[in-house]
Amino acid sequence: MNHTKSESKKYDVVIIGAGASGSALAYTISKYTNIKHVAVLEKYDRPGQVNSRASNNSQTLHVGDIETNYTVEKVKQVYPAAMMVAHYGEILTPTERNKFLFPTSKMVLGVGKNEIATLEKRFDDLRPIFPNLKKLHRNEIAQVEPAVVDGRDEKTPILALHTTSGYAVDFEKLSQSLIDNSEINNPDIDILFSHEVSKISKLKNGQGYHLAIKNGESIETRVLVVNADSYSLLLAHQVGYGKEFSLIPIAGSFYFSKKILNGKVYTVQEPKLPFAAVHGDPDVNKSGATRWGPTARFHPVLEARNMKTSLHFFKSSGLWKWKTWTSFAKILFDPVRFKYLLENMLYEFPWIGTQMFIKNVRKIVPNMKASDVTYAKGYGGMRLQRVDTNTKELLLGEGKIIGDMAIFNMTPSPGASVCLYNAMRDAETVTKFLGTGFHFDKERMMTDLYKESETCEGKDPGLKYNYVS
Ligand SMILES: Cc1cc2nc3c(=O)[nH]c(=O)nc-3n(C[C@H](O)[C@H](O)[C@H](O)COP(=O)(O)OP(=O)(O)OC[C@H]3O[C@@H](n4cnc5c(N)ncnc54)[C@H](O)[C@@H]3O)c2cc1C
Predict the structure, then answer these.
(1) Average of pLDDT values for 427-452?
(2) How sure is the predictor about 363, in pLDDT bands with cuts at 50, 70 and 90?
(3) CA dist 411 to 60, 312, 327, 351, 383, Å?
(4) Do residues 398 and 386 lie in contact, with contact meaning Cβ atoms separated by under 8 Å?
(5) DSSP string spanning 226-257?
């Protein structure tokens, strides 16, 4: 769009953030809408450098087959939503696809009678959705993942649900691919790296938003979509949205061992702590290694390993309000959560941390010793969990605030997996916001990426649910 240096650049749509979510929306708008004046503003110098960074998350395409914390209802939504990433890969050349999409086997392991009962029931419930899902007993597990059975007490029963049809994803490279293709689809799109939005305000005429950029530039947009994950709430607060929400900052760190697993091995989750169960994953960028984690530690920052973002956490969390403290107390002093978070804090200490952490790993590989794992320095991200301070409830999974000509997405796991699905929903809202003359070819996007055979619910669950998790 035309502009002089002294005046604001003007766009129809501005997306803040070029992680998986923002990049997926840029791609969707560029390919399936007629909106041309679009900008993506990203504070770092390339896409996917925060939670979507390959080293900061577990690289799993969460479809719901091994995630025991998802209800069957949620699995039915997440499966087709997450598979959009795989189908996006299918429309690219193999060279492009192989940069970010890695077929892998996956299992969820149940140890002891209760967990086995959970998996037996789950198998029956999920079989119609995942015909490739197999139930494996001890001897069969030993063939697929020998280390899971070696050295395990014969008296402890185990069972696994296993599939060879899983995917690991480098969400950082996925973000890059989506951005590259957005630029090909719409040569007019402005992808502006090193553009940190410092202040959002509503335009006086009520026709959109003004964005102050840290480098002194000024931008105006009719529609704003904030895909800044942990920062989205802080930015929403600036224009009066989401004041009832606070954030509990959960840092997830990892450990490495030499390669001991052939695929991903998850465990049955504690319902009160769905972000907590440790798993073992091959790292897509580190052959010969297995990555263990994530841990779950209370750590007051918005970005991992960036203490400067601590101030922003305090700003966005509303800790000056009494009801925030009472909400945190209710959620964190729950005995199960309190014990768990306390333990996880100790994992960060050099010697004792590894000794304690290894107990979780031994649930998967009984023969592992503390000396077999090393803390993965520089790995791990932040999972900001929302709290509704009115109801004092912990709101797990994603959150979306739809305001006046604006959308704010908060996207902890499985946000990266469902990035294209969320983009599809947001593209629809954005086009409606813009009104006459703008259209979104949702049918075509669904034909390309959202396969009916993977939905159990009919054609368009996107319209029925607020968000998929
Ligand atoms: C330990 C851990 C394990 C996980 N494992 C998985 C997994 O296996 N599978 C899965 O699907 N999900 C997983 N997740 C969740 C996943 O990482 C997130 O859902 C996903 O990365 C969110 O993508 P995003 O684009 O919304 O956010 P991000 O990738 O964090 O991107 C937000 C972007 O906004 C930019 N930004 C922020 N503020 C501003 C500003 N003011 N101006 C300009 N730019 C700004 C940031 O620089 C960043 O690039 C995991 C998360 C963690 C922490």
Answers:
(1) 95
(2) very high
(3) 15, 17, 21, 33, 9
(4) no
(5) E--GGGHHHHHHHTT--TTEEEEEEEE--EEE
Q: Tell me the fold of 9-463.
A: FAD/NAD(P)-binding domain (3.50.50)
Quote the CA–CA distance of 234 and 408 in Å, as a whole number: 10
CB 43 within 8 A of CB 196: yes
- CA 52 – ligand 1 centroid, Å: 4
CA of 227 to the centre of ligand 1 (A): 9
Tens of pLDDT, residues 414-439: 999 999 999 999 999 999 999 999 99
The Cα 19–Cα 228 span in angstroms is: 8
Mapped onto helix, strand or coil, the DSSP state of residue 184 is: helix
Q: What ligand 1 atom has the least distance to the C-alpha of 281?
A: 8
Structure tokens at 343: 């333990």
Strand (E) or helix (H) holding 399? strand 399-403
Tens digits of residue pLDDT in 244-300: 999 999 999 999 999 999 999 999 998 777 777 899 999 999 999 999 999 988 999
pTM: 0.95
Cβ neighbours for 117, distance < 8 A, ≥ 6 positions apart: none
Distance 53 CA to ligand 1 centre (A): 8
| Strand-pair partners of 258 | 289
Return the number of other C-beta atoms located less than 10 Å from residue 456's C-beta.
16
The domains of the chain are located at 9-463
Using the 8-state DSSP alphabet, how is residue 286 labeled? E
**Alpha helix locations (H) across 156-225?**
171-185
Sheet of 245-252: strands edge to edge? 297-298, 245-252, 381-388, 393-395
Residue 288 falls in which region: left (phi positive, over 0), alpha (psi -120 to 50) or beta: left
Distance CA 147, CA 143 (A): 10
Distances in Å between the Cα of 311 and the Cα atoms of 122, 297, 318 are 43, 18, 12
Pinpoint the alpha helices (H) of 33-105: 72-90, 94-97
For the beta carbon of residue 205, count every other beta carbon within 10 angstroms. 6
- Roughly how many angstroms between the first and final C-alpha of the chain, as a whole number? 37
Residue 443 has pLDDT above 70, yes or no: yes
What DSSP string describes 294-337? ---EE---SSTT-GGGHHHHHHHHTTTSHHHHHHHHHHHTSHHH
Among protein residues, the one with the nearest Cα to ligand 1's atom 52 is: 57
Q: Report pLDDT for 413.
A: 85
Ligand 1: residues within 6 Å at CB?
16-22, 41-44, 48-52, 56-60, 62, 171, 196-197, 227-229, 231, 252, 294, 380-383, 411-417
